[in-house]
Write a structure and sequence with these properties.
Elements: H1 3-20, H2 33-51, E1 77-78, E2 84-87, E3 96-100, E4 106-107
Antiparallel strand pairs: 1-4, 2-3
Length: 117
């Protein structure tokens, strides 16, 4: 047997088996037209439901923002070990603001941009 004919025969046999399962069985009972229409409508509705399922609502939980506390920064304090002249900057060219005696704490008001003073 030719391979091409063999393949066509197998394909035809598979199609016949598939289509034979789709043919409704012949019964001797008679059905009234109302019952038949109901069965057809139910079959069509099942097909529509399968092909075009109804969208479902999916709830996604959302996070509720919580308040974050901002820390209150304590002032930076300085103490010196000997009498110290305090200036507006890190060199003698800056104006003098006062002096600081040992054992007295004083708040630091600022620092240089490079954080060295």
């Amino acid at each position: 047997m030719n391979k091409g004919v063999f393949r066509i025969s197998i394909a035809s046999l598979i199609l016949v088996v598939l289509f034979s399962s789709c043919i409704p069985a012949v019964t001797t009972e008679t059905q009234d037209s109302g019952e038949m229409q109901t069965q057809v409508a139910l079959g069509m509705q099942a097909t529509v439901d399968f092909l075009h399922p109804s969208p479902t609502l999916t709830l996604t939980p959302t996070l509720t923002p919580t308040s974050t506390s901002t820390p209150t920064l304590e002032p930076v304090m300085v103490q010196v070990s000997e009498d110290t002249l305090c200036r507006q900057g890190p060199d003698k060219q800056f104006l003098m603001m006062g002096d600081l005696a040992p054992g007295i704490e004083q708040e630091v008001l600022a620092r240089s941009t490079d954080s060295n003073y």
